Amino acid sequence: MHPNAQLIAQFYQAFQRLDAEAMCACYTDDIQFSDPVFTDLRGVQAGNMWRMLTARAQDFSLVFDSIEANDVEGSAHWVASYSFSQTGRFIVNDIHAKFEFRDGKICRHRDHFDLWKWSQQAMGMKGLLLGGLPFVQNKIRAQAAKNLQKFSSK
């Protein structure tokens, strides 16, 4: 297995244990992270996002597969299942990740998932009817940013 594929596996194994510090150790100090909710996190912000998510995780499980990597880039598929803390609804989020590497660490991490599908699970009928609208998706992003800012200030 390529060393960068092992690094990806190490990242997700740490995530399975809810070990945010071990996850962050896989990143460069200037990591760039993005997903449909947290669209541009850099450096310590990305680490704090994982710290917040792992600290708040309820009924959490994660599986991963399809890891591929070379010297420059990599990818993986992962599924996180958990209870969403704000509504108590159970989420199964199917995610495709892309990575870029530098000096034996992840320097860029981009997760892709269907935010509308996520909002349907998180908010039920309201998410089904309104979750595809940019206004609602921007509200989800704003709330997540507010939560991260509050968590980071502790």
From TrEMBL:
Gene3D superfamilies in the record: 3.10.450.50
Q: Which domain of life is it from?
A: Bacteria
- Describe the location of the SnoaL-like domain by residue ranges: 9-109
Please state what the protein is called. Nuclear transport factor 2 family protein
> Taxonomy-wise, where does this protein's organism fall, top ranks first?
Bacteria, Pseudomonadati, Pseudomonadota, Betaproteobacteria, Burkholderiales
